[in-house]
Automatic annotation (TrEMBL):
<comment type="similarity">
    <text>Belongs to the flavin monoamine oxidase family.</text>
</comment>
<keyword id="KW-0274">FAD</keyword>
<dbReference type="Pfam" id="PF01593">
    <property type="entry name" value="Amino_oxidase"/>
</dbReference>
<keyword id="KW-0812">Transmembrane</keyword>
<keyword id="KW-0560">Oxidoreductase</keyword>
<keyword id="KW-0472">Membrane</keyword>
<feature type="binding site">
    <location>
        <begin position="45"/>
        <end position="46"/>
    </location>
    <ligand>
        <name>FAD</name>
    </ligand>
</feature>
<dbReference type="GO" id="GO:0005741">
    <property type="term" value="C:mitochondrial outer membrane"/>
</dbReference>
<keyword id="KW-0285">Flavoprotein</keyword>
<dbReference type="InterPro" id="IPR002937">
    <property type="entry name" value="Amino_oxidase"/>
</dbReference>
<dbReference type="InterPro" id="IPR050703">
    <property type="entry name" value="Flavin_MAO"/>
</dbReference>
<feature type="binding site">
    <location>
        <position position="456"/>
    </location>
    <ligand>
        <name>FAD</name>
    </ligand>
</feature>
<dbReference type="InterPro" id="IPR036188">
    <property type="entry name" value="FAD/NAD-bd_sf"/>
</dbReference>
<keyword id="KW-1133">Transmembrane helix</keyword>
<feature type="binding site">
    <location>
        <position position="256"/>
    </location>
    <ligand>
        <name>FAD</name>
    </ligand>
</feature>
<feature type="domain" description="Amine oxidase">
    <location>
        <begin position="23"/>
        <end position="479"/>
    </location>
</feature>
<protein>
    <recommendedName>
        <fullName>Amine oxidase</fullName>
        <ecNumber>1.4.3.-</ecNumber>
    </recommendedName>
</protein>
């Protein structure tokens, strides 16, 4: 990868500068050069490596082998065309997520219960009431998500109400039964890396809508997000993209401090410094910028002229998740020998009010060559412990489910605390707190010459690798539009962007009245009360059926017309 020392001048002209050498940024650079090889493209990356939130590590494994394992983005699914096409073009292979056998679930009670199929959808060992309650809760959430417009959530008349509500509040108000509540809360922790009390309900519904259904967020089959993995790890994708782009076009250890747009000529100055030497500053100049860093990291970059209010508030409000991912290798896949899938779902709660166990969920991570391993997510309460303490806690927790073999056959442990990763500061993605979704509307809008990519700016699969690739394609064609390469533009990829001919500015929230009780229900109630009143009146005075119906009406009309009481 190119060294900064290779440049003799601090002012270098480029057509496009891409900030961020993660999956989105590298995909954008590759697509720019594929469609127009004459473009002068430069990629700037603050870290010492490419890949962003994809990271593979080598672990000690069975039979003296090593295992390349994912500590970042891991899974893809069949309904993600862009990432699947990219994987195929790069010559990589996928393998299905192993899900055969019994799952172990600890929800609704401290005791472990077995189930088959999807751990949260086909629950045989649960009571009929628990199963129906969970099914109804997921259905209710799915029906709400279907009404959300991902591009403009505030076009829905319930958006204001849900924007002010947390996911935990909605669960408490709408879900009965401990088992169903636990299931939804576990899915939220694994999806966002934080407690559901911190997640905006409208944001959650938006994410559910763009991934298909809420059930997809925790399923390992069909359209579930854990359906497939990449053989050898997902970091290979970024490494191969970097090779195609050319390492002379990628500069590592360069932190972007400021975007400065000259309104008189449209030239953008990108102010940077080195991570190794903060006083080593270089200013790059270009015509267009693709900013492919997480939204929370955009808040650390200054803009001149200043950003619009909503855009700045978006960057300030977007909160990174605090997901801890771990991998454990074993001598044998003993869980498969027992007819278990390796999938565990747990609240981490015990009979002790102050105790929280580490494991949220686990999945089989055995390689295509049969090297046994497990991958899982850990509760954020363990963030401040040492790696050794977390390792011991995870192994003890696995022993609760799988018995002593989880300790006896243990070989190696690796983990990643993404909240402590420089220039990323959290995973799997950002989430929006309560009351901030109005700023979410402008996440894809460019600012002058700066275009925003990244998984959070996608229109589908927000926060996933598919979303990262999709957003990169959009920004590439935005740049072509600005540079005048109209013959290169695919307007299908610009659909919903500011360059779409049908684009309409998303409406910021308006405090309109939300009808709690439908008009027809109020009408039925009023008519019923009126009829009962007439019946009681007529019974008292023993009137005929005609008089019973007409007498009160006559009195009311005469009273209204003349002011006299009708006898």
């Amino acid at each position: 990868v190119m060294s900064v020392d290779s440049f003799s001048d601090n002012q270098i002209d480029h057509d496009v500068i891409v900030v961020g050498a993660g999956l989105s940024g590298l995909s954008a650079a590759r697509e720019l050069l594929r469609l127009e090889p004459t473009l002068r493209v430069l990629v700037l990356e603050a870290k010492e490596r490419v890949g962003g939130k994809t990271l593979s590590v080598s672990m000690k494994a069975a039979r003296g082998n090593t295992l390349n394992a994912d500590l970042g983005g891991t899974w893809i699914t069949h309904s993600q065309p862009n990432i699947l096409r990219l994987i195929e073009e790069l010559g990589l292979k996928t393998l299905p997520q192993y899900s055969t056998g019994t799952k172990w679930v600890q929800i609704g009670t401290p005791k472990w219960r077995s189930c088959t199929g999807s751990a949260l959808k086909n629950i045989r060992d649960f009571s009929l009431g628990e199963t129906l309650n969970l099914w109804w809760s997921v259905r209710k959430m799915r029906k709400l998500a279907e009404k959300v417009d991902v591009t403009n959530p505030f076009s829905w008349n319930r958006a204001d109400e849900l924007n002010e509500m947390s996911l935990a509040q909605w669960i408490r108000q709408n879900v009965n039964g401990r088992s169903a509540r636990d299931a939804l809360e576990i899915a939220a922790r694994a999806t966002y890396g934080v407690e559901p009390s911190r997640v905006n309900m409208l944001y959650h519904l938006t994410l559910c809508k763009c991934t298909g259904t809420f059930a997809n967020l925790f399923d390992v089959s069909g359209g579930g997000v854990q359906a497939m993995r990449v053989q050898g790890g997902t970091e290979q994708i970024s490494k191969r993209l970097a090779e195609e782009i050319g390492k002379d076009k990628i500069i590592l250890h360069r932190v972007v401090e400021r975007f400065e747009v000259d309104e008189s000529n449209g030239i953008t100055r990108v102010h940077t410094h080195s991570t190794n030497a903060p006083y080593d500053k270089i200013i790059y100049t270009c015509s267009q910028v693709i900013c492919a860093v997480p939204l929370n990291q955009c808040a650390k970059i200054s803009f001149f002229p200043p950003l619009p209010y909503l855009k700045q508030r978006l960057f300030d409000s977007a909160m990174p998740g605090n997901l801890i991912k771990f991998l454990v290798t074993f001598e044998t896949a003993f869980w498969r020998e027992e007819g278990w899938s390796g999938e565990v779902i747990s609240t981490g709660r015990t009979t002790s009010p102050s105790e929280v166990l580490p494991v949220i969920c686990t999945y089989d991570y055995t390689s295509s060559s049969g090297i046994p391993a497990m991958i899982g997510f850990m509760s954020e309460e363990y963030s401040d412990m040492t790696k050794e303490d977390r390792c011991n806690a995870v192994v003890r927790d696995l022993m609760r489910v799988f018995g002593e073999r989880a300790m006896v056959q243990f070989l190696d442990y690796e983990e990643k605390l993404w909240s402590k990763e420089p220039y990323i500061a959290g995973a799997p993605s950002v989430f929006m707190p309560c009351g901030t979704m109005d700023s979410w509307l402008v996440r894809r809008e460019p600012f002058m010459t700066v275009h925003f990519a990244g998984a959070e700016t996608a229109s589908k699969w927000i926060g996933y690798m598919e979303g990262a690739v999709e957003s990169s394609l959009r920004t590439v064609h935005e740049v072509f539009h600005q540079l005048g390469y109209y013959d290169k533009i695919s307007y299908t990829l610009l659909k919903g962007s500011v360059y779409d001919s049908d684009y309409k500015q998303p409406l910021v929230t308006s405090k309109h009245y939300v009808e709690r009780i439908p008009f027809w229900r109020r009408g039925v109630f009023f008519f019923t009360v009126l009829c009962l009143g007439i019946l009681v009146y007529s019974k008292k005075y023993k009137l005929s059926y005609t008089a019973r119906a007409m007498k009160p009406l006559e009195k009311a009309v005469v009273k209204f017309s003349t002011g006299m009481d009708w006898p």
